[in-house]
Amino acid sequence: MANSVNLTVKLGSLIFKNPVLTASGTFGYAAEYKKYMDLNALGGFVVKGLSVKPKKGNKPPRIVETPCGMLNAIGLQNVGIDRFIKEKLPLLEDVDAHIIANIYGTKADEFVELADKLEHIGRVSALEVNVSCPNVSKGGALFGKNPNDVFSLTSSVKKHTSKPVIVKLTPNVDDVAAIATAACDGGADAVSLINTITGMVIDTKTKKPFLANRTGGLSGPAIYPVGVRMVYEVYEKIKVPIIGVGGIYNSDIALQYLMAGAALIEIGTANFTNPNITVEIIKGIKEFLEGENIKSVGDIVGIAHNA
Amino acid sequence: MANSVNLTVKLGSLIFKNPVLTASGTFGYAAEYKKYMDLNALGGFVVKGLSVKPKKGNKPPRIVETPCGMLNAIGLQNVGIDRFIKEKLPLLEDVDAHIIANIYGTKADEFVELADKLEHIGRVSALEVNVSCPNVSKGGALFGKNPNDVFSLTSSVKKHTSKPVIVKLTPNVDDVAAIATAACDGGADAVSLINTITGMVIDTKTKKPFLANRTGGLSGPAIYPVGVRMVYEVYEKIKVPIIGVGGIYNSDIALQYLMAGAALIEIGTANFTNPNITVEIIKGIKEFLEGENIKSVGDIVGIAHNA
Amino acid sequence: MKLEIFENKRVAKDTFSLKIDNPALFDASPGQFFMVKINDFDYPLLRRPFSIADFNDRHIEIIYKVVGEGTKILASKQKGEFLDLLGPLGNGFGDIEKNRRIFLVGGGIGAAPLIYLSNVLENMYGVNYKAYFGFNTKDEVYVDFGKTATMDGSLGYAGNVVDMVEPELDENSLVLACGPTLMLKRLAYVCYQKKCDMKVSLESRMACGIGVCLGCVVETIDKDFKRVCVEGPVFDYREIEWQTL
Amino acid sequence: MKLEIFENKRVAKDTFSLKIDNPALFDASPGQFFMVKINDFDYPLLRRPFSIADFNDRHIEIIYKVVGEGTKILASKQKGEFLDLLGPLGNGFGDIEKNRRIFLVGGGIGAAPLIYLSNVLENMYGVNYKAYFGFNTKDEVYVDFGKTATMDGSLGYAGNVVDMVEPELDENSLVLACGPTLMLKRLAYVCYQKKCDMKVSLESRMACGIGVCLGCVVETIDKDFKRVCVEGPVFDYREIEWQTL
Ligand SMILES: Cc1cc2nc3c(=O)[nH]c(=O)nc-3n(C[C@H](O)[C@H](O)[C@H](O)COP(=O)(O)OP(=O)(O)OC[C@H]3O[C@@H](n4cnc5c(N)ncnc54)[C@H](O)[C@@H]3O)c2cc1C
Ligand SMILES: Cc1cc2nc3c(=O)[nH]c(=O)nc-3n(C[C@H](O)[C@H](O)[C@H](O)COP(=O)(O)OP(=O)(O)OC[C@H]3O[C@@H](n4cnc5c(N)ncnc54)[C@H](O)[C@@H]3O)c2cc1C
Ligand SMILES: Cc1cc2nc3c(=O)[nH]c(=O)nc-3n(C[C@H](O)[C@H](O)[C@H](O)COP(=O)(O)O)c2cc1C
Ligand SMILES: Cc1cc2nc3c(=O)[nH]c(=O)nc-3n(C[C@H](O)[C@H](O)[C@H](O)COP(=O)(O)O)c2cc1C
Ligand code: FES
Ligand code: FES
């Protein structure tokens, strides 16, 4: 049976050895996981969101558990693009998996600057543009909620990079397919969804929001039905590959995303509970395909639409 | 300690003996629960969504479990307004708790017709207008996603009823506070939120969406952080009382909603697992207030905003 | 209602018998079911429906198959732990006309409620019946009466239980059946051809079990929906729109 | 890493000692912790951090207090069941300078890691130390060495453990402490005044325990954030921006 199943996925010029990536912010700069699993087993990983300058992030408490989920308000703490390139990337020299840089800013200029800085870094295979951040030039409303913003941001970044550009969408919108379409019109090579759903927990002892930032992003298995639904919706509207993310905790949920239309998937919060989960999910996908006598993982992408 | 805590809540001219209601669609026409609990213990109950004509609902499967939640796509099956008034209401003759009629239609006219039919039914204390339904005159987009639709629907209903009008909001929007504001501008006496979050589960065995309707509404504890966040957001923008609903499974979550700004709360999915949960939550709220030496439940409404 | 577990033991492949102390506060008819809360916290979220496999002064018995997460957790419960049961719910098989040739036909875990039914038929009604049970393999068999069919021929009749019982049925027969939907569909077709009566216990995804969520409906021939938890789980097979199952 | 439970028994009010078979695959230093998966399904979602209360060839011991849902479920686990542990994690108390007057100061469940620390100090380093433990009441006490303070005076010194240890401290003292944040804050103030050293084990909400989520940070005096799970849980008290706690 070995090698009988083809798990490879193409995204533009890139070939991923399997559809499983890790989600930004849940896998550090990847090197941290070397102790716990074989990084080479992965299709790739998306590193923690990078900004032009190092960012300190929000005050604690930053996380709180919820039923089958958690809220986080890390505030995008990161070492900044320069230290990332100088200190973090070299640790991954020997790793045979794609590295995707997740970038964000508060103005379009910052995104462009990040794209420029990464343009000649061969080790970085693609950019994932996190549009779930406040657009300071528009009074702080999220870039990702407005199709025009997403369109223009995507086109700006595209102009400054030759790498595939993935636009990561927020679920906190009326119509995610409209935003995805705007990203594609702007030239996105793929879209990834979903980022976290905004939530709040109140500490009834102190009678205040639990998180210092008040609200946080809901992730974990609780949200997977929302992610699957959005991937399904977007798949009907766009032509470029979709990367599915949100609450993937086991290979059944991973397969649901693929069947809904995701060509690749990202595993986030599940890495916290089980640092080896990605490897187990790859195995589970392979076994499913073998059991069903399906030759290539591509054959099930979007298959739920045939119903 | 008895009677030391004041649990009553006022909504317009109505007085609720405590802030706990049941959510539409999760409590039948209420009489079903007589066997399992004391209906008189409740502040009130919102009955299953009513339409002008009886409605058959969607094909099964209609429900599926998810991590700490469930999806439903009942399709608003109901006996219709006339049979409700003739057959179901009389069963509640002896019950001392407010009955709120949840109404919905596919055109504004239908909502108005329902309001008219209920106008002289004294047993019904208020109307809850479910705007999470497709507006046929606008190509099927939900009423509840468009502030103008919500405004005009609310004002139409208001013109045809003297009862308090509660507008029930969908969470599947960019900016729930904008929709809430539109409802208030239209004359809403209160808003309730949240209705379910749209989701999908795919059956990997059949490779099809599990529900016959494909998508369904996510409810249960999984969604409570989203509901609390939305109540918190809306509380800062409107003056009328908020009814908090979504994932309330115990008195701690109930208290979170109150502290976020809800004057009343509705319990939904939790009734399925524990038919007596509403009574337990009322008890838990009372004990909390006693323990904290708080005289009236009104004193904690919105208290998390003081932080 | 929290009741103490008296015994929870494996009786066949992936199949367990769970005996729970009977508080003797209520009666239960064959075909009725309980909604069982799996853990005393909110996961898994929904209660699971299980038929009554036996019911006497001392114990309520449920026989269940491990098929998913809930039943897997259930299998790990030990004597002395408590389980929260809601019920008995549903209509049950109801009154049985004595002057009929009665056939109990069960498939797989669907044989469970027929065990209690057989006890009641024997002890309360004093009527005769024949029982036919179908399983995939010998390892799965957990009933010790009636005739057995196995798909792989490892025990009894080799093949489908419907084929085994078919020759026995005629216009005077009353079939009382429970099992996988496909088996029941075939059986319904046979009964239709043989013009015999059948009461059939159906399964459906349930959230509440008490008639309020409208989640568990099946389509009936008059193009209406009926709730399996209240109007069922036992239906006259003529009511059901079988193509929709 | 799934390890078998050897014992899980109540040792004081709401307090349990959990002994787990030690596979002898790794070493562990005092002050390090494990991330424990409570159930073998996804609820509760996150692992819970617990310090090592003892560590020997045969067992890993954790002493925990039932404070919420996770610890409540943990208390119901039985000998023979398996628990999934990730660790040992964090820095631990590190090397201890022998020529200091060493004080272990623990509050409530925070005394747990100091038990293992005391064993290592005695057996490996052969150094002397004094231990002071504070509890609310006598019922809560689960340590059998050192001096005890109780807030209600039901055992030992009546009052706060910080007040009990304060007179003993001077410039040559090294305090090794763990306990509730408020107690540690007071202790930090005392150490600051007495110009003595202190290493303190902090608590923080953790998602990953391995440094990747950035959820567990504490603010340091240089206005930076440090991860309790990697740069801690043990910190030099001078590093910490105590007002933010
Ligand atoms: C009236 C009735 C009586 C039943 N009696 C028995 C019995 O005596 N013995 C027995 O082993 N099984 C019985 N079942 C089926 C039993 O309810 C399911 O096998 C069980 O719920 C599966 O739970 P799980 O968590 O292991 O599976 P999962 O697949 O993890 O469950 C996920 C969800 O789907 C539901 N579900 C899954 N399979 C079924 C099914 N076949 N029918 C209904 N809901 C399902 C679960 O209740 C749960 O809500 C009965 C079902 C009904 C409706
Ligand atoms: C490094 C470290 C070592 C610890 N060592 C011990 C020990 O030896 N014995 C012991 O009894 N406790 C210890 N704790 C505290 C212990 O982790 C919490 O009491 C436990 O997580 C509570 O879980 P719960 O599900 O019962 O509580 P819940 O309140 O239901 O938990 C909800 C969430 O909050 C987290 N949480 C709640 N309280 C705390 C807390 N005080 N610290 C960190 N996270 C918390 C939980 O981990 C969980 O994610 C330690 C904490 C840390 C950070
Ligand atoms: C602690 C944490 C930090 C995150 N940081 C980022 C980030 O920096 N950039 C980003 O695009 N998404 C970030 N995310 C979102 C995840 O990448 C992912 O979209 C989301 O968590 C849903 O997936 P999951 O349920 O599998 O975790 C973060 C999520 C978590 C839990
Ligand atoms: C089975 C089911 C049926 C529902 N039917 C209705 C309905 O008819 N009208 C309505 O406004 N909301 C309906 N709802 C939504 C609930 O009233 C509630 O807003 C939602 O379930 C969130 O609350 P919960 O998490 O406590 O269930 C339904 C929910 C469920 C689970
Ligand atoms: S399960 Fe809720 S109506 Fe039948
Ligand atoms: S718990 Fe994740 S970084 Fe410390």
Task: Draw up the topology in text.
The complex is a heterotetramer, with 2 copies of chain A (307 residues) and 2 copies of chain C (245 residues).
Chain A: E1 9-11, E2 14-16, E3 20-22, E4 44-46, E5 63-66, E6 69-72, H1 80-88, E7 98-103, H2 108-119, E8 124-130, H3 147-159, E9 165-168, H4 176-185, E10 190-193, E11 197-200, E12 202-203, E13 208-209, E14 215-219, H5 224-235, E15 242-245, H6 251-260, E16 262-267, H7 270-273, H8 277-291
Chain C: E1 2-12, E2 15-21, E3 33-37, E4 48-51, E5 54-55, E6 59-65, H1 69-75, E7 82-89, E8 101-107, H2 112-125, E9 129-135, E10 147-150, E11 157-158, H3 161-165, E12 173-178, H4 181-194, E13 197-201, E14 217-219, E15 225-227, E16 234-236
Parallel strand pairs in C: 8-9, 8-12, 9-10, 10-11, 12-13
Antiparallel strand pairs in C: 1-2, 1-7, 2-6, 3-4, 3-7, 5-6, 13-16, 14-15
The complex binds flavin-adenine dinucleotide (FAD) (2 copies), flavin mononucleotide (2 copies) and FE2/S2 (inorganic) cluster (2 copies).
